Structure formats: C-alpha cells, structure tokens
Amino acid sequence: MKTKHLIWVVLGVILAAGLVIAGTWAMLRTVNSPAEPTTVAEATSPEATPAPVPPRPACPAGGVGGVELPCLGAEGAGDAGVDKQITVANVWAWWCGPCREELPYFEEFAQAHPEYNVVGVHADTNAGNGAALLTELGISLPSYQDADNTFAGTLGLPGVIPITVVFDGDNQIAMFPRTFTSAEQIYQAVQEAENAP
C-alpha cells in the first residue's frame, strides 16, 4: 500500500513540475515578446490589404543618397531641394511608435532650417497607411516609399527604425539609429555630421 501511495505522489510531483515549467515558458514568451515590431522585417506583411494613398508633397528629384525611390503619395518628383547640398533622411514606418513621436520634430526642424533637404523614407509595404499617418500628424515633409527595403539594403543600414541618415550630395556622412526627442537635437546631430573631419 505504501509503495502504491509513493508512486502516486511521485507522479503528482512530476505532473505538477511539468505544468509549472510549461506555464513559466508561456509567461516568459508573452513578457519577452515586443509590443510592436522593432525591425522592418518583422513588421512588413505581404498579406495586408493596402490602403488608398492620399496625395502628399512631391519629393526632391533624384532620390536620396543616390537611391531612386518612388515618392509616397505624389506623382513624379518636384524640383524642391535640387540646389541644397545636405539631405537629412528619416527612415520610418506607420506602425512604429517612436517614429510617430519623432516625426513632428523633423517637421519642426525642416521648417526652421530650409537650408537642408529634409525627407522621410517610409520603410513598409503599406503606402496608404504611411501617407495617412503623415496626414493625421500634420506632417508636410515629402517622403519616399520604400516597399522592399531598397534604401537600407543599398546603403547597408541596420534593419531597425527609426534611423536618420545625413548626406552631403549622394555621400553618406552620418547615421543615427536612435529616436530624436526635439528639433534642436536633430539640428545638433546634423551640425556635428557636417563639421566632422
């Protein structure tokens, strides 16, 4: 009788331990999963139904950093920015929370510093959602549409966003894989990039 009881106790302990391990694994998996994607590859979804793209401002002709991309929500390219040497390109996506927070600072920076080309590069397949976010936030910056990661792939950028790249003509002079929290921070970073040896 004691042997039978001992067997049931051991089986109960093994079963309980298995449940605890399975529960812990499930909880850790949930806790360690990001609330939103942090890389472009995790966020793009070819199955997503594309939203219509509202009209947006035309992008400067010639692309950005030597990379030709279509303009988000605009037919063709404009002639704005052709005489400006320094371009500040902010890579963002509609689903990116930090991007949403910093885009207004890029708008403010562009308004305060017309000596620079300031553009966005929307790194997602859903152009409609990208244009809608810019409209919702009141952002008038021109933005290129990069549905297949051409910009980051061509320039060898890390696959995270937001990321800001500064160009002198087509030459990349700085890269900032971080979120800016003010227009002044952006200006200081661009000044450092311009003045670096």
UniProtKB/TrEMBL annotation:
Region entry Disordered, spans: 38-59
SUPFAM superfamilies on file: Thioredoxin-like
Assigned keywords, A-Z: Cytochrome c-type biogenesis, Disulfide bond, Isomerase, Redox-active center, Signal-anchor, Transmembrane
Highest taxon of source: Bacteria
InterPro entries linked: AhpC/TSA (IPR000866), Thioredoxin-like_sf (IPR036249), Thioredoxin_CS (IPR017937), Thioredoxin_domain (IPR013766), Thioredoxin_ResA/DsbE_sf (IPR050553)
UniProt entry tagged with the keyword RNA-binding: no
Residue ranges with Pro residues bias: 49-58
Protein localization: Cell envelope
Low complexity bias: start-end ranges: 38-48
Residue ranges occupied by any Thioredoxin domain in the UniProt entry: 29-195
Keyword NAD: no
Protein name: Thiol-disulfide isomerase-like thioredoxin
Record organism: Corynebacterium testudinoris
